[in-house]
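My current task is to audit a protein record that another person submitted. Thanks in advance; the entry in question is below:
***
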Amino acid sequence: MKIAIVGTGYVGLVSGTCFAEMGIDVTCVDIDERKIDRLRRGEIPIYEPGLDEMVLRNQREGRLHFTTRLKDCLNDVEAVFSAVGTPPDEDGSADLRYVLEVAHEVGRNMQHYMVVVTKSTVPVGTARLVKAAIQAELDARGADIPFDVASNPEFLKEGSAIKDFMSPDRVVVGVESERAKTLMTRLYKPFLLNNFRVLFTDIPSAEMIKYAANAMLATRISFMNDVANLCELVGADVNMVRKGIGSDTRIGAKFLYPGCGYGGSCFPKDVKALIKTAEQYGYTMSVLRAVEDVNERQKSVLFEKLSKYYSGDLRGKTIALWGLAFKAETDDMREATSLVTISRLLDAGCSVRVYDPAAMDEGRRRLGDSVYYAKDIYDCVLGADALLLLTEWKQFRLPSWEAVGRVMRRPVLFDGRNIYDPQELADAGFDYFSIGR
């Protein structure tokens, strides 16, 4: 079976590579010639553990190909997956221009039946727009070629995306014809053989499932951050509270960890888009508005704690940050708490030193020379008046606190992910602050 995947960003590249690993012949398409050239040489433009080896292996074995020309491979494929970006517009709605550009190109060049599958996270109703765009191009050509559209949202977690694709909780496929269902069933046959859940739905439901899932997870995070902030005020320990409510089988323990705010490519964008979709139908998503407000406030929580510690006078202070990426095992800084924190520190007159195991290049691209990029965790804290932990990388879990404290100007730590033991830090001579404890 042969398919094409348009877009070699996070979703497209991981999906295409994993489909190839399952024995499918995959052509990944992107208009960025430089990116395609790099991929052909085996250079991976994103950080995802294990992806580089898988890309190289499947290229070598002839199942994974890269091109800038979608029209050149349309005659050979049975399905085209659209995995292009859907960035938020200024009003929070999803920008569908790239999705519709793919649809128009397919309509202009297709010669036989195929299924056009939306893999990107798109608002409810997008498949209808894709179908209309393809049909408009066929009508302009005077061509009577049957086709179907489908929705196949991704549920990949950055840092564990390959495992999520190869061993999924569920695969959601929205279709509107038996012919499309048959083709998609054949595509996902390896999952069916391994007894993974492949859930077929109507297309609007598939489109909504992705947004609703991310909105629920974001809600749990913001709820727990609100609880954590209240715990500090009343003298409770949020870790004990989390364990107490997480043990309720109706609630469960996942996504109840407090911290300094969520970020990334999914939760912020999808929450905004779902709020905007509701507005377009005359409805207000009051809970999600609150979720978004809590998260934006939470991104400044460490800065506010630091400012309080120094009685509001941060000018001339040197502040070290461990972590730039929005979470561990990725170099993604989209909507990252680090960006908010660094901006506020610089505005307050601080010098900022940063270190991240994977996101230093992305940091340089976004922050320029406004901060110092350290060689390692110890270089980062050299001469620092405070250390802020923003990302829960494993490399940050067991430093030598004696070495850290020796090179800092003042041994004070603000733990934005609650990964350290307060007593251990106190014994090491640190002033230690965390979230909700």
